[in-house]
């Protein structure tokens, strides 16, 4: 099993992992309407721990609370404090994944909009690093649509869709799954956004393609134009473009930047990690570890230097 840090944050307190519990009749259990974030913190050269784009993750969490009509939207500072205090309580100084969940708690089975609670915990694990690669499949399951379950809201119940697609793909022998919109255009992976390289240019499904508006996607859009010297294309993307592309990769806070080597057993480009993806990986990992001063505003240090 994946190791978890010994302490979690729960509704204002630091508690042992085993005590981070919610009531069986809470709204989050019954309706699956928690909202959550997954982000990473990286060890810097000086030994500090740097949270990557924490402010943007908190903004998205708060947007989720609004969209899910929570009776109270937790203040930005309270969420930041929860994450930082939890990491400090665990004395964490190595690379770690961080999970934050805002939820409908209490024990009243009829209360649909509150009380609003907050959970944070850490799953220490190393970065995937440069290189690597995934063998992917296009799912038989379609991505949920904004007209029913909005994919841009990182709501726990939405992830029934991703889980169904991912489990099927893994049981069929693939490392990763790509999902299409209801009208058959490419959307995204089960926990990451999709980017292709076509004619030396980055191409990614637009925000109308039933995707989560990924923070890593945004990072890549900013870096991509520098690396390729061409503007990034955000548009509808066809399934067969996976086979026309020179390169493809997934990007997400947990996924980081990971090459896709094949789709449905057909190689993407050469079938090896390509030069654009490798250059983006190098740059991404340098930024998250605080090696490029230009991007310091994206980093929140956990420890006082
Ligand atoms: N799509 C989905 C469905 C996801 O769950 C995630 C992970 N949050 C992403 C994309 C990537 O988003 P981000 O870069 O903000 O982590």
UniProtKB/TrEMBL annotation:
EC number(s) stated in the UniProt entry for this protein: 2.6.1.42
Ligase keyword on record: no
Record keywords, A-Z: Amino-acid biosynthesis, Aminotransferase, Branched-chain amino acid biosynthesis, Pyridoxal phosphate, Transferase
Cofactor(s) this protein requires: pyridoxal 5'-phosphate
Protein name according to UniProt: Branched-chain-amino-acid aminotransferase
A single GO BP: L-valine biosynthetic process
The reaction(s) this protein catalyses: L-valine + 2-oxoglutarate = 3-methyl-2-oxobutanoate + L-glutamate; L-leucine + 2-oxoglutarate = 4-methyl-2-oxopentanoate + L-glutamate; L-isoleucine + 2-oxoglutarate = (S)-3-methyl-2-oxopentanoate + L-glutamate
UniProt function note: Acts on leucine, isoleucine and valine.
Naturally occurring in which organism (per UniProt): Acuticoccus sediminis
Pathway: Amino-acid biosynthesis; L-isoleucine biosynthesis; L-isoleucine from 2-oxobutanoate: step 4/4; Amino-acid biosynthesis; L-valine biosynthesis; L-valine from pyruvate: step 4/4; Amino-acid biosynthesis; L-leucine biosynthesis; L-leucine from 3-methyl-2-oxobutanoate: step 4/4
MF terms in GO: branched-chain-amino-acid transaminase activity
Entry's family note: Belongs to the class-IV pyridoxal-phosphate-dependent aminotransferase family.
């Amino acid at each position: 099993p994946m190791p978890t840090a010994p302490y979690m944050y729960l509704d204002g307190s630091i508690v042992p992992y085993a005590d981070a519990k919610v009531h069986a009749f809470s709204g989050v259990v019954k309706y699956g309407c928690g909202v959550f974030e997954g982000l990473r913190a990286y060890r810097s050269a000086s030994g500090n721990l740097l949270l990557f784009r924490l402010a943007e993750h908190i903004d998205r969490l708060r947007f989720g609370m609004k969209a899910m009509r929570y009776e109270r939207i937790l203040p930005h500072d309270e969420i930041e404090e929860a994450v930082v205090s939890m990491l400090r309580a665990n004395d964490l100084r190595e690379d770690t994944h961080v999970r934050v969940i805002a939820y409908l708690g209490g024990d009243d089975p009829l209360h649909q909009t509150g009380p609003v609670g907050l959970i944070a915990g850490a799953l220490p694990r190393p970065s995937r690093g440069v290189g690597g690669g995934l063998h992917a499949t296009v799912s038989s399951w379609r991505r949920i649509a904004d007209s029913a379950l909005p994919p841009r809201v990182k709501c726990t119940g939405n992830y029934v869709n991703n889980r169904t697609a991912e489990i099927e793909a893994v049981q069929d022998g693939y490392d990763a799954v790509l999902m299409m919109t209801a009208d058959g255009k490419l959307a995204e992976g089960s926990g990451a956004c999709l980017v292709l390289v076509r004619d030396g240019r980055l191409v990614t499904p637009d925000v109308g393609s039933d995707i989560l508006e990924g923070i890593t996607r945004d990072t890549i859009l900013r870096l991509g134009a520098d690396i390729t010297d061409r503007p990034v294309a955000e548009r509808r993307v066809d399934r067969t473009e996976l086979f026309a592309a020179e390169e493809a990769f997934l990007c997400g806070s947990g996924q980081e930047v990971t090459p896709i080597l094949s789709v449905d057993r057909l190689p993407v480009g050469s079938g090896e990690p390509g030069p654009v993806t490798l250059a983006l990986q190098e740059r991404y990992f340098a930024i998250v570890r605080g090696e490029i001063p230009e991007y310091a505003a994206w980093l929140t240090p956990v420890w006082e230097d």
